[in-house]
Structure formats: structure tokens, C-alpha cells
């Protein structure tokens, strides 16, 4: 279980391959999840959900709820404005980040009283620049203004820096204090699940890390 200094005493955790016990993070809390679909959609959690709405970020100002998202290369992003008591969890793969899921998450937090200037964010384990090779079709989804996130690769390919791109999009949303844990899911098979690594090795691709954040009662 990993934690971020920037989130301070706010109950939160990023799991490794080892299962994470939500009750150890927020005793008595209710875990709230969504069905992630690589979208830019955000939902508000006001109570325990009976179903799992399609979305890729969750925001709440309600104590006792533990917001959870799962990842296996995409970036898990946990956010908090400790002064207003608003927290959020976002699943930021390249599609979601490119589509605005992080900006939408911050906007949802602001609607509950959060201040972007007071909001902090932590980026958990995600696939890193040296491990993320992409092709021309992927590169064509991004404009020239994003060229700095693509490093040289083998012919016809690039190395995409997803964590740096996520930091950039958080900055576009007004978030200045960002902690990137710097943990490459692909490069650490004994510690993290990685969808891309499992695909390359023809292994089971079902493993996921769980990332959670909540407000105590």
C-alpha cells in the first residue's frame, strides 16, 4: 500500500499487487465505485451506490464514503481540497486525460466548494515514459502542442509520457501541487499489475490496482 505526502492525513491509499483493505484506510467507510469506460465523465457520490454508473471519476464532500478507482497502466489520480472537505478519484488513461476527465473532475470539485489553488493531487502507479511505446495512429490523436510528451522511439513509433501529460492536464485545471509517485507499472512485474505487460506476455490481463480516498466521519 502506497501513500502520498501531498495528501497528508486525508485517508487514501494506492494498492500494489497485494490486495488493499478499504477498511484499513477508512474504518467504517463505504466503498463507492463506478464502471470505468475511458470517458471524461464524472459522478457525484452522496451516499452508497446500489449500481455502478458509467464514469471515470468520482467526487464527494460526504464523510464516510471511500471513493475507489482501478487501474493497470492508466493513471490513478486522487485529489483533495482539505480546507473545503472535497475529495475525488479519477481514472486517467490517455483517452480520458485527452478528453478532459481531469478538468471535469476539478470543475465538479469546485461546484462543491473546492478551490483549485488549495487542491492537491497525487498520481499513483502508472505506465511510465520508457515503457509506453505508441504508433503513428496514437500520435495522430494529439496536436503539435503536445509534441513534448512524445519521445523518440523506433521507426514509426514514439514513447509517450503519460504521467507528464496527466500533470500537464491537472495544471490546465489550476492544480499546482502535484505529487507523482513515479512508479512504473510495466517495469515492476513483482509489484504491480500491467495490462500492457500481460498482453505482451500472453498472460492474464485481469489484474488491477485499487486507489481510494475518502473523508472521515
Briefly characterize the structure:
The chain has 217 residues and is α+β, with helices and mostly antiparallel strands.
Total number of helical segments? 6
Q: Note the main sheet.
A: 6 strands, mixed
Q: Which CATH class is shown? A: Alpha Beta
CATH superfamily: CNF1/YfiH-like putative cysteine hydrolases
Beginning-to-end CA distance, first to last residue: 22 Å
Mean pLDDT over the full residue set: 95
Q: How much helical structure, as a percent, in the residues?
A: 10-25%
Beta fraction of the residues? 25-35%
- Alpha-beta content class: alpha+beta
Q: Would you mind describing this structure in some detail?
A:
The chain has 217 residues and is an alpha+beta fold. It has a single domain, classed as CNF1/YfiH-like putative cysteine hydrolases. It contains six helices and 13 strands. It has helices at 22-25, 94-99, 101-111, 136-139, 162-172, 195-200; strands at 12-14, 30-32, 42-44, 57-60, 65-71, 75-81, 86-92, 120-123, 133-135, 150-152, 157-160, 177-180, 209-214. The strands form three sheets. A six-stranded mixed beta sheet has the order 3-4-7-6-8-12. The protein has a four-stranded mixed beta sheet with strand order 1-13-5-2, with no helix packed on it. A three-stranded antiparallel beta sheet has the order 9-11-10.
